[in-house]
Design brief:
This protein is mostly beta strands. It contains two helices and nine strands. Strands 1-2-3-4-5-9-8-7-6 form a nine-stranded mixed beta sheet. β2 and β3 form a beta hairpin. The two termini are 14 Å apart. The C terminus is likely disordered.
Length: 132
């Protein structure tokens, strides 16, 4: 299951990260990764807020165009031909990390990581793994 981030923008919810193209549902949240693994964006499923978490290892030049939920986890397809699992404990995100729609999220102590889950055929944009 995945949802194009543009759906939220069309609904008037702005999570202030233009480099996140797709999000996937996990629990009461929607999760997406910015290009280059510059940030992980978490949106509350009821659209009452969003948080931006630092990703422990940046991946310069890698585009994440597809995010999807599988087996109670979130995965993102990278343009480098790798399927990554998002490693984050959503329950530990401090209340001070959340921001309202249209407001930049504050710096948050909670971080995320990406772990290689599988090798895929490089699609150039990250969409190929999700659409195959």
């Amino acid at each position: 299951v995945h949802t194009d981030a543009a759906v939220f923008e069309a609904a008037g919810f702005d999570f202030r990260e233009p480099l996140v193209r797709d999000v996937a549902p996990v629990g009461a949240y929607l999760v997406g990764v910015a290009d280059g693994a510059a940030a992980l964006v978490v949106v509350k499923a009821d659209f009452t807020g969003h948080a931006a978490l630092a990703v422990e290892s940046a991946l310069p030049g890698v585009v994440f165009d597809a995010a999807f939920a599988f087996d109670e986890g979130v995965y993102v397809a990278g343009s480098d031909g790798t399927l990554y699992k998002v490693l984050v404990d959503l329950i530990t995100i401090d209340e001070a990390c959340w921001a309202a729609s249209g407001v930049d999220a504050p710096t948050c102590a909670t971080t995320a990581a990406l772990a290689s889950a599988a090798t895929a055929i490089a699609a150039g944009s990250g969409s190929g793994t999700n659409c195959a």
